[in-house]
Amino acid sequence: MVPPHQIDPKQERALFAKALSDFLSPKFLTLSVAPFAVTILVALAGLYFLSGEFFHMLSAAAAASQNPDGAQTADALTQFAKEYPIISAILGSFIFKAVAGTLFYIIGGGVAVLLSVLLGVIIVGFFTPVIVKEVQKRHYPHLARKATVPLWDYVLFMIAQVGLFILLTLLTLPLWFVPLLGIVFMHIPFYFLFHKLLTRDVAGEIFDKAEMKRVFKEARWRIVTTTLILYLLSMIPGVGVLGQVFFVIVLAHQFFEEAATIRQTL
Fold first, then answer.
1. Mind listing the pLDDT tens digit for each residue in 162-201?
2. Which is nearest to 245 in space by CA: 190, 202, 206, 212?
């Protein structure tokens, strides 16, 4: 085994080359369609809903500023608009709508890309057993898939990581608006959850609990390097949702190779 803190670039390149060769096969390309289609549909539906709510708020402000007595007081947004007519007039103006709409789709589009990547990781999780099994069949038939981590353990892990993701998001949110640095801080919580969900999902199909703990400790920097490369690739338009199966293949190869090494030392 390569020393825990040492990363072999040649080995990393070979890992990605092998995974790409698998991904370009008809079976894996066909398998990529389902996660891609589901992710796109859910992401578009979410963006449509959020944009509708956003522009409804602006329209309500405009209506209340022009006719405050005729507005529906039961609507919290309209009530706010009635109490602050000057702000309502500004919010309802064409110029503000144009600027706000542009900013909404720029910022919202960026966040939507990050969320779609995480959504893709969650959706591809349902296909991970099939993908890992196929990788094993092609390259590692001599290695057993133990996959003995209890379901409740995985559920508790998921809840804990989502909680940490929310905490990291809240802690870094004020820094998102700092020029240049904001780009880095925005990605910290998203990479954290991307790494945690993807590695645990794939490793859970190959290792038992003891092996998983050992691999995550001894090979953590190699794993971080791999997932960081995958995360950067996911930022390329289209790759984040279309390449999820490829991401699983890459980690399946890495974890099978780690499994071959640690089982030889037992």
1. 999 999 999 998 888 777 888 888 899 999 999 999 999 9
2. 202
CA distances from 32 to 44, 99, 133, 242, 246 (A): 18, 38, 15, 7, 8
The secondary structure of 44-55 as a DSSP string is HHHHHHHHHHHH
DSSP string, 104-163: HHHHHHHHHHHHHHHHHHHHHTTTHHHHHHHHHHHH-TTS-------HHHHHHHHHHHHH
95 contact partners, CB below 8 Å, separation of at least 6? none
What DSSP character marks residue 178? S
Domain ranges of the chain: 9-264
Choose the most confident range, by mean pLDDT, from 32-41, 203-212, 235-244: 203-212
